[in-house]
Write a structure and sequence with these properties.
The chain is mainly α. Helices cover 73% and strands 0% of the residues.
């Protein structure tokens, strides 16, 4: 089954092309009326300019019909250009959303599931693929910075344990305080 894909840049180019065509029509009609497709009746010839009443009548009818046809095309083109511009933006936003969603799913599945959405969003795909237990096991980091980071983490853990043992609900300080309160 063939996949469906839309290039937002192509939609934007189509929108710009339609708007350029409408701008070109301004040169044919009266400025300000081309956006609505009007102004072609100004191309009519007077009876004297046409030289014959039948030619004047036929040419006037043609200009009126041409004006209405162009007006309809310009209005539909303007509407289409607006929708193409909106579609380009919509597709761009959906692409960004799907990319972020996939990155979040992969990061939660193979990386640190406790990362915030902003942390995951700030990482490249290489960082997402590199930050998991398998890659850490197969490609360990033995750099001095990694050792220092690990020692800092170990030190913090031991401080937290000591604090819990001293000040926790069953901590040493509580037992000493209760013991000294009972001796007085």
């Amino acid at each position: 089954m063939a996949g469906f894909g839309v290039d937002p840049q192509s939609l934007k180019l189509a929108e710009e092309g339609i708007n350029a065509a409408i701008a070109e029509l301004q040169g044919l009609g009266i400025a300000g009326l081309a956006e609505s497709g009007r102004g072609f009746s100004e191309l009519e010839l007077s009876g004297v300019e046409a030289g014959h009443p039948d030619l004047h009548s036929v040419f006037t009818g043609f200009c009126e019909r041409w004006s209405w046809g162009v007006r309809s095309l310009v209005q539909e083109g303007s509407e289409l250009a607006l929708k193409l511009g909106l579609s380009a933006g919509f597709y761009h936003e959906q692409e960004r959303y799907a990319h972020g969603l996939l990155k979040g799913v992969v990061a939660a599945g193979i990386g640190d599931p406790h990362q915030t959405e902003d942390q995951v969003e700030g990482k490249s795909w290489d960082q997402i693929w590199g930050d998991n237990q398998y890659s850490q096991l197969t490609n360990p980091d033995f750099s001095p910075q990694s050792a220092e980071k690990a020692l800092d983490g170990i030190g913090k853990t031991w401080k937290d344990i000591a604090k819990e043992k001293l000040e926790g609900p069953f901590g040493i300080n509580k037992a000493v305080a209760e013991g000294s309160a009972g001796t007085h």
